Amino acid sequence: MNNQRYDTISALFEVVSSLERKWSNEWNQINDLGFSKNHILLLDLLAKEGPKRPSVIAERLKITTGGVTVLTTKLLKGGYIQKSQSSKDRRVSQIAITPEGRKVLEESKTQVIALVHSMFGMLTNEEIQTLHHIFEKCLQQSPRKYGRS
Questions:
Q1: pTM of the full structure
Q2: What is the reported pLDDT for 48?
Q3: How is the chain split into domains, by residue range?
């Protein structure tokens, strides 16, 4: 990799890291429900697509199954989701949203809209489409071992 490309990619990494912190701080400021963005994303996934296995949730949210356990613990205790086990195989479980979870998801929508507007409201429709395409491309990239090409 040539020096100019490395410098540009390093600068991009710094900007993305700063944006990530900024957006996280903004979420924490406007969020009065006490849930992380991932809690809301999990509830939204279950509301839109129905019950899911923890492994599927992990894959869709781009987190580990351990991360799913952390997220679901709070939601289970609050009655926002329920976990059921297969009668055929007790090791297999599914997680579903409850009516209380749907209520919290609905309440979160104004906060999510405010955050999204703060994040992307200054962009044109074309810029939003381009950025979406770039982000999707980055997500599709297979993970590499750092330090190796």
A1: 0.77
A2: 97
A3: 19-140
